[in-house]
Amino acid sequence: EKSILFSGQSDFQSILVFRSAQYGNVLVLDGVIQFTERDEFAYHEMIVHVPLLSHPNPKNVLIVGGGDGGVLREVCRHDCVEKITLVEIDPMVVDVALKYFNKSTATAFNDPRLTIVNEDAAEFLRGQMDDCDASSSFLYDIIIADSVDPVGPAETLFEPEFFETMHAALNDGGIVCTQGECFWINLDLISDVVACCGDIFDSVEYASAMVPTYPCGQVGFIFGRKGKEKSFSCRVPVRKAGKSLESRLKLYNTAVHKAAFVLPKYVEERLAPLYPQVYHSVNNEYDYEEMQNDVEDMEDDCFLNKCTIS
């Protein structure tokens, strides 16, 4: 059986699809594996259902990138969503996905709620901001940035200006979720992005998931929410997935949602001081006042501080 299914060069990047005996069809962009059919659901379910189920009523969703259709497939499983805009700079990615991944990720491109825009996402959002005022209906409840690593056509998606534009494009209470790299090898980059988001969004959090195909088998997600009045943490879902949605999922459930925000000690210690808020688990809310004092108080109250080793 032929293992190389497609190899081509678009206006933006090289695209390769090959068949793996163990992992099914594999999408590669500029020499970097994007996903395999065997474990893509782990990434796509987490980057979608964590933010969407952390919002009480998401109606208007923007997908940045995501031309392979995996994020779109998961967003379309939410009946409350009324409008989906997918901004993919490279139309060849969509064409390739429809041909070689039509039984896995590319299954929802015929959804009537979908509008596809082939444009640089940063330019697209800037154009919307120039054309519309803050009260216009173009504002989004959820923005999912399904971006590749910050090189080539995706470089602009990691710049502070793009996060500022996404923040401006959100409704009050809206959430941005972006691919957050691997903390085992990219913690400096993650820290920089979290610090940048902390200067822009009212609340910022980092979550993690296991995806065997990715470096070290781990990938992260960075969440930013707009508006202190409605800033409940993404750590706990505010809506139930429901039996219909749950029956179609392979990885996500409420327990996995909550566990995603439990980070290794060294990662939490690096990122927590960069968050613009403190999380209180009792009411699943943020505290924006006297953040550092609250952190110190929580440390002082830890029962382990009273332990002595003899």
Structure in words:
- By secondary structure, the chain is α/β, with parallel strands linked by helices.
- It has ten helices and 13 strands.
- Strand 1 and strand 2 form a beta hairpin.
- Helix 4 crosses helix 5.
Please tell me what the overall shape is: globular
Percentage of residues assigned to helices? 25-40%
Beta-strand fraction estimate: 25-35%
Separate helix tally:
10
H and E string: EEEEHEHEHEHEHEHEEHHHEEH
Structural class based on helices, strands and sheet pairing: alpha/beta
Largest sheet: 7 strands, mixed
Mean pLDDT across every amino acid position: 88
Unreliable stretches (pLDDT < 50, length at least 5) are 290-310
The beta-strand count equals 13
Output the strand order for the largest sheet: 7-6-5-8-9-11-10
The radius of gyration computed from the alpha-carbon positions, rounded to a whole number of angstroms, is 20 Å
The termini sit apart by 66 Å
Give descriptors for this structure:
single chain, 310 residues, alpha/beta, seven-stranded mixed beta sheet, 13 strands, disordered C terminus
Q: What is the gist of this entry?
A:
This protein is an alpha/beta fold and 310 residues long. It has helices at 40-52, 70-75, 91-100, 121-131, 160-168, 187-198, 242-246, 254-259, 265-271, 291-300; strands at 4-9, 14-20, 24-29, 32-36, 60-65, 83-87, 114-117, 140-146, 170-179, 203-210, 218-225, 278-280, 285-287. A seven-stranded mixed β-sheet has the order 7-6-5-8-9-11-10, sandwiched between helices. A four-stranded antiparallel β-sheet has the order 1-2-3-4, with helices on one face.
